[in-house]
Write a structure and sequence with these properties.
Radius of gyration: 12 Å
Number of helices: 5
Structural class: mainly alpha
Distance between the termini: 12 Å
Largest sheet: none
Number of domains: 1
Strand content: under 5%
CATH superfamily: ACP-like
Helix content: 40-55%
CATH topology: Non-ribosomal Peptide Synthetase Peptidyl Carrier Protein, Chain A
Low-confidence stretches: none
Number of strands: 0
């Protein structure tokens, strides 16, 4: 990942990945960031594997089972915070 990536870019990319197949059913960015996309079935148990691989490939990170099974990982905001932690931004 380029050093020029910032939190806004991480946010944009994460939301775009989550909404790739279907938009989230909320309008504002703030509501999108707190939407529990896994609990709602927006990304199902099969698609989550691809989503994790795409995050790792996009941001050149290696997520752990602890990361992906955490409550934090169930919202876009939590995914963004996890990625920003790995990128130290």
């Amino acid at each position: 990942m380029e050093n020029s990536v910032d939190k806004d870019e991480v946010c944009r990319r994460v939301v775009a990945l989550i909404e790739r197949d279907e938009p989230l059913p909320v309008e504002s960015l703030e509501n999108k960031l707190d939407y529990r996309y896994l609990d709602s079935g927006h990304i199902d148990s099969f698609a989550i594997i691809d989503f994790i691989f795409e995050l790792e490939d996009t941001f050149k990170i290696q997520l752990t089972a602890e990361d992906t099974q955490s409550d934090q990982f169930r919202t876009p905001r939590g995914v963004i915070l996890t990625i920003c932690g790995y990128l130290s931004i």
